[in-house]
């Protein structure tokens, strides 16, 4: 049956195959992934070039691999958090006092 339908379509000049929606979606996804892959490959190539330049400069300036591999110093964020919370409390307190003063509660 499918053979006869295909044969009839070819004779009528309608030999273009139509993909079901799920194959079209799969094809589009493949295309998108291929494009993303090309972009990532180019980004990787660019990062590799940059690394080679950094490596060359580090060696020329006498920076050892040990120094390069030292981790970043730990950042103590707690004092910053306390400052932020304290500033927030002061801002709210200022707002409340301003509201009370404007309402005539305090002379």
Instruction: Tell me the overall shape.
Output: flat
Looking at the chains present, what oligomeric state does this protein adopt? single chain
| Rounded Rg | 34 Å
Strand content: under 5%
Low-confidence stretches: none
Query: Which sequence of SSEs, written as H and E, runs from N to C?
Result: HHHH
Q: Count of DSSP helices?
A: 4
- Care to count the β-strands? 0
- Average pLDDT, rounded to a whole number, is 80
Descriptive keywords:
76% helix; 4 helices; 107 residues; flat
Please render the helix and strand layout as text.
Elements: H1 2-12, H2 21-60, H3 65-69, H4 78-102
What does this structure look like?
This protein has 107 residues and is mostly helical. The protein folds into two domains: 19-71; 72-107. It has four helices and no strands. The radius of gyration is 34 Å and the shape is flat. The termini are far apart. The mean pLDDT is 80.
Write a concise synopsis of the structure shown:
The protein contains four helices and no strands.
């Amino acid at each position: 049956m499918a053979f006869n339908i295909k044969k009839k379509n070819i004779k009528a000049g309608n030999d273009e195959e139509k993909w079901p929606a799920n194959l079209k979606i799969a094809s589009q996804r493949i295309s998108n992934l291929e494009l993303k892959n090309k972009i990532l490959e180019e980004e990787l190539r660019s990062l590799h070039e940059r690394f080679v330049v950094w490596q060359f400069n580090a060696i020329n300036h006498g920076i050892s691999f040990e120094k390069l591999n030292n981790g970043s110093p730990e950042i103590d964020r707690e004092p910053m958090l306390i400052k932020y919370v304290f500033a927030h409390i002061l801002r709210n307190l200022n707002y409340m006092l301003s509201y009370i003063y404007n309402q005539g509660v305090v002379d």
